[in-house]
Design a protein that fits this description.
heterodimer, A: alpha/beta, Rossmann fold, 4 domains, six-stranded mixed sheet, 18 helices, disordered C terminus, B: mainly alpha, ABC transporter involved in vitamin B12 uptake, BtuC, about 75% helix, globular, disordered N terminus, binds adenosine-5'-triphosphate, binds magnesium ion
Chain lengths: ~525, ~325
């Protein structure tokens, strides 16, 4: 079959960073084509050159054999290309309908908006995702009132409303619940059957294998291979992604590829013998939590399971002093833990890596340096006030190295980093504060396989040093791999506790589902 | 993943002039234009004079910069009035006697800081929009001034203050310029090298994230307003030293220029981005422009229009720069 899409020799440089260095991608009609690679390898940049939001420095793009000049989003639209970006871009103040038809509002004469046509169009696009929304389609609700997963679905619907020949999904599943992922996959399969080319980026390889036909792997802005997924193992794919990293300061570079990185073999993090009880939570109640009580030992990793949105994020926020608590309290090492403000919680040794990186975790326009320093600089400042530029730089550098964050300069705005590297910055700022209690809300969101393992190793390391770790994750594999114990939450209350041997992916799914009303397996 | 890839040499090529450089270039162009239309405009004495005028605006705008960086629509419209009040208090307590300088300055700055504290509390605790809060504060301070003076300013600057501000120290430069340099360095240090400064940028860039990073956002904001009023008070004292005696609307006209200087200097009105170097250059641009318009004998409506056009041209240039960069 002749190629629908052919990209060759695509280059793009940002200041000191060569984001794309001769990348290529060839894909055919009716294919789901995975675009894979480590954080910062250029996946999003390549996607954006297709969508017209980034104009490459050089390179060639052919669609259906004809050379395509994509100078802006309009050109992409005209060519039948629609994209869902990694960063959510819904307009919170607009309704779901308005978001979906944004940019292609069916106009009446004189340019007045035809509301009825817009609604029909939005409803058609959203209908296929009905199962991903709890209850009715929220056509007239402001997008801001939806959960992150639902907003993501709205973005996909917006792309579909353009009836594309080529659909680009850049980490579109990162903020979806498992059930929503299934719905999305069904839609993608329908599109494939209808001859659409879907370019799919995700760091979750199980998703890639479940959905995609072929995969193109990028590394350092270059295409290293395109493989047929039916004849490739997960291991082989990971090897392609992490092999011979260009300039990595770790171990022996000429050891067998990937041998030094425990990318696949999950080293069990279970520390059977934990220390004394360190954190005691008693009857914690907010408007979304009901009477939550539990204890965690020093050195223990406590997972939070259940369907997403059952109060897991709220529980983490409450323990960080960022929710209004109506009853209950918490003790850390026998002393009352202040739950009245994040500042006090942080000073008492609590750290939170929040679930919504852009809104809660980072300062997009500020330098990487400040983003990394902020949580811990008071420890290094003289008189709690005067900062030493050298000391701050040293601290930031140490984190950049420890987490292998791919950056140009510490002075670049953190917004210029790739998604996964931004996430590492958000984690890194707290590691510098040496917290006693670490609250993690989906810490490996958008992080590549190798970095995921690094983050897991860090979580285990924190526990080994005697910290209390509480982990919420939308990825059951992550929960099984890291948790010593899992609390399954349902409607803001603890519904079940799973310990050591009973923490399996199957068990997690069944205990989450069994509790949902009217759910049949 | 792979270690940072830094390729330094190319960065130089990618460099584009930032707002500070652009504003600086505009200032130079204005000076040259002045010299062309009216020889002598760029003479040494004349330039020193312009810088002296710029100094007052610049010092008032230190606080304005801080408040605007704090974001959330932050702005302090009461700076002019507070500077006036501080000068009035200073003048009356000094009463022309060097022995009274310390208590006079201390009292003036304390009152200014207290006004800033009220602004800050109103904005953070009562959630009054900064524009409304500080606009309302103008009226309150005006009332305080009337009550304090009974409509008639009294006293006089102490001679030591006057000679500190006006005295020629080196290169025939007035002491004021050195004080400005000192305060400017203090402002830059405060913003770039203190926990307060970094917290301030963080709050301005993303308040929710700042709070979730353990930053005491409310406290930082209150301190921003206190500092704004205090720097305004300081500018009032310097003005007092310059004019020797005060009148009831001494510094009022600095309200809008202080905001304009900050914006011309490239600080984002939305908060989180900017700095004092830009503001200082912005104050110079505004002052040179005023000087030029005065020299050309352009008055009234046209002056306002020209001012507005220069502001718009610069801001649209900055907008273009930002787009080019991203
Ligand atoms: N606007 C920008 N300005 C400067 N550098 C940028 C910009 N956008 C991307 N980069 C850099 O280009 C490189 C590639 O980024 P890109 O977002 O394409 O990576 P990615 O493969 O999508 O990574 P991730 O898996 O983390 O999303 C990164 O090093 C990033 O820092
Ligand atoms: Mg990306």
């Amino acid at each position: 079959m002749s190629a629908l899409l052919e990209m060759t020799g695509v280059r793009k440089r940002y200041g000191g960073v060569q984001a794309l260095d001769g990348a290529s991608l060839t894909a055919v009609r009716g294919e789901v084509h995975a675009l894979l690679g480590p954080n910062g390898s250029g996946k999003s940049t390549l996607d954006k050159t297709l969508a017209g939001t980034v104009v490459p420095d050089s390179g060639e793009i052919r669609i259906d054999g004809a050379e395509a000049r994509i100078g802006g989003p309009r050109d992409a639209h005209a060519l039948g290309i629609a994209a869902v970006y990694q960063q959510l871009s819904v307009v919170g103040d607009l309704t779901v309908t308005q978001n979906v038809v944004l940019g292609l509002e069916p106009a009446r004469r004189l340019g007045f908006l035809d509301h009825r046509a817009a609604r029909v169009r939005a409803a058609t696009a959203l209908e296929r995702f009905a199962a991903a929304f709890s209850g009715r389609l929220p056509l007239d609700r402001p997008a801001a009132s939806l959960g992150p997963g639902e907003q993501q679905i709205v973005e996909v619907a917006k792309a579909l409303a353009r009836e594309p020949r080529v659909l680009v999904l850049d980490e579109a599943t990162a903020s979806l619940h498992k059930e929503q992922v299934e719905v999305l996959f069904e839609v993608v399969r329908e599109l494939r059957a209808a001859g659409v080319l879907v370019v799919f980026t995700s760091h979750r390889l199980d998703e890639v294998f479940a959905l995609c036909d072929r995969a193109t792997v990028l590394r350092n802005g270059r295409t290293v291979a395109t493989v047929d997924l039916s004849s490739t193992t997960e291991d082989a794919l990971v090897q392609l992604m992490v092999a011979a990293p260009a300039q990595t300061p770790v171990e022996t570079p000429d050891a067998p590829q990937g041998a030094s990185r425990h990318v696949e073999a999950p080293v069990s993090g279970r520390t059977a013998e934990s220390g004394a009880v360190a954190l005691v939570v008693r009857g914690l109640t907010t408007d979304r939590l009901r009477d939550v009580s539990f204890t965690v030992r020093a050195g223990e990793v406590l997972g939070l399971g259940g369907l997403q949105g059952q109060g897991q994020s709220e529980l983490l926020l409450a323990l960080f002093g960022a929710a209004r608590i109506t009853a209950g309290d918490a003790l850390l090492d026998g002393k009352a833990l202040p739950l009245t403000s994040p500042a006090r919680a942080a000073r008492a040794g609590v750290a939170l890596v929040p679930g919504d990186r852009a809104r809660q975790g980072m300062f997009a326009s500020r330098p990487i340096q400040e983003n990394l320093s902020l949580a811990s600089m008071r420890r290094r400042a003289r008189l709690k006030l005067a900062l030493s530029a050298a000391a701050e730089r040293r601290a930031a550098r140490s984190m950049v190295e420890r987490l292998s964050i791919k950056i140009g300069s510490l002075n670049d705005p953190v917004a210029t980093l790739s998604g996964g590297n931004q996430q590492k910055v958000v984690i890194g700022k707290w590691l510098l504060d040496q917290p006693r209690v670490v609250l993690l809300d989906d810490p490996a969101k958008g992080v590549d396989v190798a970095a995921k393992e690094e983050i897991y190793a860090i979580v285990r390391g924190l526990a080994a040093e005697g910290a209390v770790v509480i982990l919420n994750s939308s990825d059951n594999r992550e929960l099984t791999e890291l948790s010593d114990r899992v609390l399954v939450l349902f409607e803001g209350a603890v519904a079940e506790e799973l310990t050591a041997a009973s923490i399996t992916e199957n068990r997690l799914v069944s205990s989450a589902l069994r509790l949902a009303p009217g759910e049949t397996l | 993943m792979s270690a940072p890839t830094v390729e330094a040499p190319r960065r130089a090529l990618a460099w584009r002039p930032g707002p500070v450089a652009l504003a600086g270039a505009v200032a130079v162009v204005l000076v040259i234009a002045g010299e062309l239309v009216s020889p002598g405009f760029a003479g040494y004495g004349q330039l020193v004079n312009l810088m002296r005028v710029a100094a007052f605006l610049s010092v008032i705008a230190i606080g304005q910069t801080i408040v605007i960086i704090a974001g959330g629509g932050g702005v302090d419209l009461s700076v002019g009035k507070v500077a006036t009040f501080a000068a009035i208090i200073g003048s009356r307590v000094m009463a022309g006697d060097d022995a009274n300088i310390v208590p006079a300055v201390a009292l003036a700055l304390l009152v200014a800081a207290a006004i800033g504290l009220v602004n800050g509390l109103g904005v953070t605790l009562l959630r009054i929009p900064p524009f409304v809060m500080t606009l309302g504060m103008i009226g309150v301070v005006q009332g305080l001034i009337l009550a304090y003076t009974g409509g008639q300013a009294s006293g006089r600057a102490a001679p030591a203050l006057t000679s500190l501000v006006n005295g020629r120290i080196v290169f025939d430069l007035p002491g004021l310029l050195f004080l400005w340099l000192l305060l400017g360095l203090l402002a830059v240090w405060l913003l770039r090298r203190t926990t307060f400064g970094w917290n301030l940028y963080a709050v301005g860039a993303n308040r929710a994230a700042a709070e979730l990073t353990g930053v005491r956002a409310g406290r930082t904001l209150i301190l921003a307003y206190v500092l704004s009023a205090t720097f305004a008070g300081l500018a009032g004292i310097l003005l007092l030293g310059y004019t020797e005696s005060v009148f009831l609307d001494l510094a009022d006209q600095y309200m809008l220029p202080s905001v304009a200087a900050v914006v011309i200097g490239g600080t984002l009105l939305a908060g989180g981005i900017g700095g004092y170097a830009g503001t200082a250059v912005g104050a110079i641009v505004l002052t040179v422009l005023q000087g030029l318009l005065t020299t050309l004998d352009i008055g009234g409506a046209w002056r306002t229009i020209v001012n507005g056009v220069v502001l718009l041209v610069l801001l649209s240039l900055y907008g273009r720069q930002r787009r080019l960069r991203s």
